[in-house]
Amino acid sequence: MGSNGEAQQLEGLARELALSVLIHGPLSRRELAERLGVSPATLTRISAPLVERGLVSEAEEPLEGRLGRPARPLDIVPAAHTFIGVKLAADALYAVKTNLRAEILASRNAELTSQDPAKVVEQIATLVHDLASDHEITGVGVSLGGNTPDHAVVSRAPFLRWADVPLAALVAERIGHPTVIENDLVALTVAEQWFGEGRDLDNFAVLTMGAGVGYGLVIHRRLVTSPDVGIGLVGHYPVDPEGPWCAEGHRGCADTMLSINGVRAQAAVAYRRPLDYNEVMELAEEDDLAASAIVRQSGLALGRLIAAVANLTMSQRIVVSGEGVRLAEIAHDAVLEGIQRDRDPAASPVGLVIQPHDSDLWARGAASVAIQQFILAGAPA
User: Fold this and answer.
1) Superfamily per CATH, domain 198-354
2) Does residue 297 contact residue 311 with C-beta atoms inside 8 Å?
């Protein structure tokens, strides 16, 4: 192999090493060598530059249970780099500052004062500069509900009435830091894959309930994505053959049964007046008959959607999250019943995680995308 080929291979191995200790560290040198399929000597060669740059270090605590001289494992240095994540919602901005392991160090939020791209960029810049304070920022991630196939231009964001907005370039020019743009559900799934519930799994999925129903999937440790990310395709999936009709002519689809507006629409018919989503949830908790029936039926529908995901993808774990996750909490028994209805009794139990809603977690997802870009593209440079 020529010198250029060898250098490229070592750079690739350095990225794999950094990623391994970031997600799974601390790891012994022997375990790292086995994971990467290299000799101890090669591991030393590829780890030395990362150690010199302060990205990787020997952990203070030696590994226990080994004969002979205690081995000090290699681990990432979380404080070596700082990232900002910004979640752009329909009416608000949520921002967090994290370390290299996406641990939240500080957070800020603000109401969105305008949907004009230039004004949105100014608000993003204000939050970034406020959070950055005296820290040097390595990268910034911005997530939103929409399509951004190249992670730079927002090709479509209906809730902002945006089309072909070069958001990454606008933000990077304004704040002076590398910026990556991502669909908010993809970003949330990346955070779970690298730092959360999917960290040690080959296959897992994320379902979110809010303005719509979202779906993220990781198979064989790879994020499944396509140009259609951001359209909300899972919202069209049928979950109740007797449910209400949606505007697209679908009966009992996930959006009508599980989205915040879908639940509110069902409640408005039952009560003959508009109700807030939280009001419906509170009435259900108080055993109000109509609200309880709505929440139970939606819980069954959610269970059927979870079962469909588990059956079709063989996911080891399914994380349910989002602004409307309170439904899953209140209707937990109905959710489990819905799963059992459509799941083979001989199948493995579905690893279900109901994650309480926290806007900072969505912003953390945006930061995780910036961390991902840094590790996979920029860390070994």
Assistant:
1) ATPase, nucleotide binding domain (3.30.420.40)
2) no
